[in-house]
Design a protein that fits this description.
This protein is an alpha+beta fold and 790 residues long. The protein folds into three domains: 52 residues, no CATH class; 441 residues, Alkaline Phosphatase, subunit A (3-Layer(aba) Sandwich), CATH 3.40.720.10; 167 residues, Sandwich (Jelly Rolls), CATH 2.60.120.200. 21% of the residues lie in helices and 22% in strands. Strands 2, 3, 4, 5, 6, 7, 8, 9, 10, 11 and 12 form an eleven-stranded mixed sheet that branches. It has a six-stranded antiparallel sheet with strand order 19-30-21-26-27-28, with no helix packed on it. It has a six-stranded antiparallel sheet with strand order 20-29-22-23-24-25, with no helix packed on it. Helix 5 runs parallel beside helix 8. The radius of gyration is 29 Å and the shape is globular.
Length: 790
């Protein structure tokens, strides 16, 4: 039986549908609490009918600051110079003119009591997160991490960066230069990428991932892709990394404003300069010829006088004396003085060139009409100047990291080419001490201001009305993030990506903008690095020195009972007058305070080791537990993701196809001109080339003709002992026939390279031998390459 049903009118269905949708989807109001980022999606406020004709659309909002109620927030340019001392830049009394830093200071404020952590990646983690370096797992560089919470090398998801926060409010974020906040084992093509620039809040990255890089042959990365640098800069001049990142920063800022002028930009310009290698076009170092012939003692005296005259230091500040372990300039033999003067000329040119490139970025902002509403924070150093060049300076910094003595003859032979791509040079420790005038000590020494006090200038014409004034409130790099957030007008979130956030430990510096005499709001700050300990509290500073920074390892010491010094910083700007014996009760109070802060911020356990902490067994590994690695052609792997072959028995096997006419090219190489090894074919010879950080070379070369067709080449490396520096025997085979044998008389113990990769089938970066030209791609067919730990 068919039952007749009355048709339901579409208008009624539509009405009911709309009612249900409105009740369950569109009518409730979800709280948009700003402490939760990213924000929950807003409920749909329109109307959904059966067709678009009886529905109401809602246009999605642009992700720009105005959408979130922010009125004309500033663009932000953060400049961070690497390994730069307090007395280096002319803006803070140094002997190297820095007109761009002058410009920022004269257009705003210069801060004379601003502090860092004494080492690069810890300072950078603190800068980005607004938390102390141990609080965010960065108590030391990641390559020396030990697996304890304060030393993991991993910035936790509970410490979102200020860049991540600003991105949620519509900022366009780009990072140029150095990213030393990626854990060593996460630097390969497989990531993970949580601590790469994109994971730390930046939409675009162009620079290098690691501690330092060759300025002429940098380990370039664009976003997550490894690149080889171009031959020239955009203006056609010979390539230099600092110029290149300035070119890219200028282009990105201009493009960003052209496409979306509603979005302010955040540009983080973190140069690899003035970290070693000190490499710069010769015309820049030649500007300083003869200017440092007076030596480091004279430089200190002249810089101290300028600092007093400029008001950078108070009239009663004392010039601290030279440590007994550093030689007086007049005691240095004439030949060495000639080398050391040239090393300083190169470093000065490097500094001036870097400031000039920053100036190009600032000029571009002005040309875009954005200078008045751009907050510029120019930090002259992530720590003090570096004494890692040792007492005699270095032609190749890799000798320092591997505790291998560099002969004087190497330095003398390099005199005319210092600063070029032939060297990975670093000046002597005494020049670093001079760059840190008027303070004691250098980079690595967190106990004293020579390692932690850096010049900083800040300008923002729309928001900072002062021009050329000095601010002497005590501040720390963790204070930059809350300063930026207050200026923009947003709070740090309580949750980010669903993760509860650690409190921001920094203090905003905005209160200093209009009041030079404002009372300090940072009253306590601990310092610790490599066992060096310090605590600032209400105008007093207690300092405990673990060891001399230009020594690879220091004698054993009880880190819980260090010989502490005491300084009244309000009366003693440069830590020149130790009051430990005068005020033992005050010293005891501060030492107890240090350990309380150490417990609070994950500083424990204290650890005074240096190169020993570079042991890879301390950290996660992509290669641990594996003994066989088979790689495809044209692969690049950073050292942290490559098998560790140092003083280990191993066999390299390359299965290749060689045409009748023969073939040339690289089979496998790690490192290059400044340390490493290569296994390759050149001019009919199978070659194993071992470069002991430029000090010695060991060549094993085949005799007789090599076969063609399907061929298996092997290099068997048999170490005399599984310990650092151990010699080894290397035997070469072609189709199981021995074609050569030789000795590696001394091997690299700690680190093959700081920035180059393990390359399969070609050679990037710098060559292991000057007998061929890069990229020296294997001209036959490389089918597979296998490394087997025997």
């Amino acid at each position: 039986m068919v039952i007749a049903r009355k048709p339901v009118r579409l208008s009624l269905v539509s009405a009911l549908f709309t009612l249900v949708f409105t009740v369950f989807v569109g009518s409730s109001s979800v709280s948009q609490a700003e402490e939760l980022l990213p924000r929950p999606e807003k409920p749909f406020k329109g109307k959904i009918g059966l067709t678009y004709k009886d529905s109401t659309a809602v246009k999605p909002e642009l992700k720009i600051p105005a959408t979130f109620g922010l009125e004309n927030p500033p663009n932000i340019l953060i400049v961070l110079i690497d390994d730069c001392g307090y007395g280096q830049m002319g803006t803070f009394g140094g002997g190297i003119p820095t007109p761009t830093l002058d410009r920022i200071a004269n257009n705003g404020l210069r801060y004379t009591r601003f502090h860092t952590t004494a080492l690069c990646s810890p300072t950078r983690a603190a800068l980005l997160t607004g938390r102390n370096h141990h609080s965010v797992g960065s108590g030391v560089i990641g390559e020396a991490g030990t697996g304890f919470p304060g030393y993991s090398g991993i910035i936790p998801s509970s410490a979102a960066t200020f860049a991540e926060v600003l991105r949620e409010y519509g900022y366009a974020n780009a990072w140029f230069g150095k990213n030393h906040n990626v854990p060593d084992w996460e630097t390969s093509l497989v990531g993970p990428f949580d601590r790469w620039a994109s994971g730390l809040g930046f939409d675009y990255f162009y620079g290098f991932v690691g501690g330092d890089t060759d300025q002429f042959h940098p380990a370039l990365v664009e976003n997550k892709k490894r690149l080889e640098p171009p031959k020239t800069n955009e203006d056609g001049s010979p390539y230099h990394f600092t110029t290149d990142i300035a070119d890219h920063a200028i282009r990105m800022m201009r493009a960003s404003k052209a496409v979306a002028p509603q979005r302010p930009f955040l540009t983080y310009f973190a140069t690899g300069a003035t970290h070693a290698p000190h490499q710069v076009p010769e015309e820049w170092s030649d500007k300083f010829k003869g200017k440092f012939d007076g030596g480091w003692d004279k430089y200190r005296e002249e810089t101290y006088a300028r600092q007093q005259k400029m008001g950078i230091i108070p009239p009663n500040a004392k010039l601290t004396p030279r440590p007994d372990s550093l030689p007086a300039w007049d005691s240095v033999p004439e030949k060495e003085r000639q080398v050391y003067s040239r090393m300083m000329e190169v470093f000065a040119g490097f500094t001036a060139h870097t400031d000039h490139q920053v100036g190009r970025v600032v000029d571009a902002i002005e040309e875009m009409g954005e200078l008045d509403n751009t907050l510029i924070i120019y930090m002259a150093g992530d720590n003090g100047a570096s004494a890692e060049g040792g007492l005699e300076g270095l032609v190749n910094e890799m000798t320092f990291f591997n505790a291998i003595e560099e002969p004087l003859e190497m330095k003398l032979d390099a005199l005319d080419t210092l600063g070029s791509d032939k060297h990975y040079n670093h000046f002597p420790a005494a020049w670093a001490w001079a760059m840190d005038t008027p303070f004691q000590w250098t980079k690595q020494i967190a106990s004293h201001f020579g390692g932690t006090r850096n010049g900083m200038a800040m300008s923002w014409p729309n928001g900072i009305k002062a021009r050329g004034e000095i601010r002497d409130q005590f501040h720390h790099v963790i204070d930059i993030a809350p300063t930026i957030l207050e200026i923009v007008g947003v709070d740090a979130p309580d949750q980010f990506n669903g993760v509860a956030q650690k409190p921001v430990e920094g203090v905003s510096m905005v209160y200093t903008f209009d009041d030079a005499n404002a009372e300090d709001r940072r009253t306590t700050q601990y310092f610790e690095m490599l066992g060096n300990q310090g605590i600032y509290h209400n105008g007093w500073m207690a300092s405990a020195l673990r060891g001399i920074p230009w020594e690879s390892e220091s004698p054993p010491i009880d880190l819980l009972n260090m010989p502490w010094e005491l300084y009244n910083i309000e009366e003693d700007f440069s830590q020149a007058n130790d009051l430990a014996k005068v005020h033992p009760e005050k010293l005891e109070e501060l030492v107890k305070n240090f350990f309380a802060e150490a417990a609070r911020y994950q500083v424990l356990p204290l650890d005074g080791r240096k190169t020993e902490r570079l042991n890879v067994d301390n950290r996660p590994s992509l290669t641990a537990g594996r003994d066989t690695f088979t790689y495809p052609n044209l692969l690049r792997l950073p050292e942290g993701a490559a098998p560790d072959l140092k003083h280990k028995d191993h066999t390299i096997t390359a299965k290749v196809t060689i045409p009748e006419g023969g073939a040339n090219g690289m089979l496998l190489t790690q490192g290059g001109r400044f340390g490493g090894y290569g296994f390759y074919v050149l001019d009919g010879k199978l070659i194993y080339n071992y470069n002991l950080v430029g000090v010695e070379r060991y060549l094993v070369t085949s005799t007789g003709d090599l076969p063609t067709g399907e061929v298996t080449f092997q290099a068997k490396y048999v170490t005399d002992a599984d310990k650092p520096f151990a010699p080894a025997t290397v035997t070469l085979f072609a189709n199981d026939k021995q074609v050569a044998e030789g000795r590696v008389k001394k091997s690299i113990p700690n680190r093959v390279t700081l920035d180059e990769t393990l390359d399969i089938g070609f050679d990037t970066g710098t060559p292991i031998s000057d007998e061929y030209e890069l990229p020296f791609r294997f001209s036959g067919k490389l089918n597979t390459l296998t490394i087997k730990l025997d």
